[in-house]
């Protein structure tokens, strides 16, 4: 991901974060900070742009953390969004293969979140080997610093 692509990526992020696929709505300043962190020095987040013939078709953001449950690096697919015209082209499937190869000897677990009603996404994730967790997740957000 390049900083010059920020406005187009933030536009896609806005569509993604305003969709039923995401419960929490993030303000544009947070989305811009996410892109800056992806292209900056933050070691915990990576950004990817999917493009063909110079046209941006989608993006993904991947975060890294440690899983005490599995004793090693956990790779979180935080965002995965394809523009409507790019859906069904196999980009998501290829991206999951890329992540598997990139983190083959490093990650012990891959995770993502998905709304159950998002059947197309669930099908892609299951095809890539992801399975539902049998427990509820909970969250607590910090007040802005």
UniProtKB/TrEMBL annotation:
Locate the transmembrane regions by residue number: none
Which stretches are annotated as coiled coil? none
- Residue ranges of the N-acetyltransferase domain? 1-145
Q: Which UniProt keywords apply?
A: Acyltransferase, Transferase
Q: What is this protein called?
A: GNAT family N-acetyltransferase
Q: Gene3D superfamilies this protein is in?
A: 3.40.630.30
Question: Does Acyltransferase show up as a keyword for this record?
Answer: yes
- N-terminal signal peptide: none
């Amino acid at each position: 991901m390049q900083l010059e692509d920020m406005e187009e990526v933030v536009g896609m992020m806005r569509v993604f974060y305003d969709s039923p696929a995401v419960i929490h709505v993030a303000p544009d300043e947070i989305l811009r900070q996410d892109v800056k962190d992806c292209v900056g020095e933050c070691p915990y987040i990576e950004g990817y742009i999917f493009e063909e013939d110079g046209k941006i078709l989608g993006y993904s953001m991947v975060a890294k953390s440690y899983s005490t449950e599995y004793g090693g690096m956990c790779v979180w697919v935080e965002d995965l969004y394809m523009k409507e015209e790019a859906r069904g082209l196999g980009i998501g499937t290829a991206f999951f293969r890329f992540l598997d190869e990139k983190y083959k000897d490093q990650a012990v677990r891959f995770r993502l979140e998905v709304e159950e009603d998002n059947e197309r996404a669930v099908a892609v994730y299951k095809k890539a080997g992801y399975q539902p967790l049998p427990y509820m997740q909970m969250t607590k957000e910090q007040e802005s610093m």
